Amino acid sequence: MSQPGPAAIAGNSTLPDLPGRILGVDAGGSGTRVILLENGTVTVRPGGPPMNALLTDGFAAHLRRIVEAADATAAGIGLPGIRQPGRARDLSEALTRQAGCPVHVTGDAESARAGAFLGAPGLAVIAGTGSAAYGWNGESSVQAGGHGFLLGDEGSAYWIGREAVRAALRYRDRLGGSGLIHRAVLQATGRDLDALVSDLCTHPAERDRLTVLAPVVTALAAEDAEDAEDAEALRIALEAAGHLADLAGSIRRRLGPLPVAGAGGVFGAPVIWDRFAELTGAVRPLASAAVGAALLAGQHRGDHA
Asked: CATH code for 21-118+286-299?
């Protein structure tokens, strides 16, 4: 089996040459991505399972094993579900004791921002399984969104999938919706709607039951309303982009006119990215959230030593 190779950094940007072997971990609802930063070079390491501080049992043990396996001199972890700074500090201190090297834990939106701008001021909107935004102007930082699938995550893959099921249910009940989405939902899930509703209500935290539908919706949508295969799919996609742009607007109103980056799998859909970029002037990240986690670990190396 071949070993993971170096990861590319966008454009002509260069990473800081931080001393030591710094691990960067980007946890998320679809999986955990891991890199090692050494001598300014990024090497991709084997990933880990999906993790969320609010939803995943035993996530701290998973993270400890990832850090120990890397033989790193420091580690940074971006973790969704971190709601309070005290929780991040407690996890950092516990993992530092257990893993034998300084570990800096932060929310996944902060590590996305650090990677997107290689540590410089800016704001990042992340849209994957969930959604959130984080901005830093060089002095102050704020976050928007990140409230979880029950109370928020607008514009995320989960939200898009939920809107798809709602459209399918409305179509079945002759209340509108979309016949194309109805058929696509049945095909993608392999379940009839009653069984799917039962599954979702019985296992609400198994978010992949809905996130799998996000690419189905964006495939039915198009950048131009005249070219859209399905008007309801286009509505959902453009509304998702609007929700994500609102997160960026919330940060800018509090921190000023920061540059915006969009990170996460939802932005892989051109119909969403193009509308989001139109509304915010967003650019693609210079580096991944895993790289951002490593950069933050380098900056905070002494905090948990």
From this structure: 3.30.420.40
